[in-house]
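Here is an idea for our session: we take a single protein and study its fold together. To get us started, please write out a protein record for me. Start from the sequence, derive the backbone structure tokens from it, and show both lines together. Go ahead whenever you are ready, and we will take it from there:
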Amino acid sequence: MSDCTARAVREMTAFYRKTSNVVVHDSTHFLKVWAYARTIGLSEGVDPKTQKILELAAIAHDIACPICREKYGNTNGKYQELEGGPLARTFYQDYGLSNEELDRIVYLVSHHHTYTGVDGMDYQILLEADFLVNADESAMKEDAIRAFRDKVFRTKTGLALLQDLFPVEQ
């Protein structure tokens, strides 16, 4: 884990401690998504720059959940995307990231519930990692898991993890 990633993990848990009424859930959720994203990215052999962007985006992907609960009464994915980008930009503004890196992290946070127009391995892996956690946390039914798998999953590692965790028929 890079110093930048370790810092982000520590600062995101502190962020949730200050802003969330479900700090443990929000923190454990992003940690699980980050672990899957890290595992899939490393297993798929993404380049170091993409891996860094992926991991930082995974850590902050749900940064908007506390404000969404307060402002909208729920954490609907479209609200998270709307509110999350600006929060992620502020969160990572003093991490010494290039404009390109910061813009990509903001883009990923702002699109992590959009399953069309996926334009990179970082985006693909973030979708898969978030789904693995959401499927468990929401006790998703087999039909929904199968449909999402067939529609969205593309990486060999993500597919293998999905099958290991949720063995649904092909």
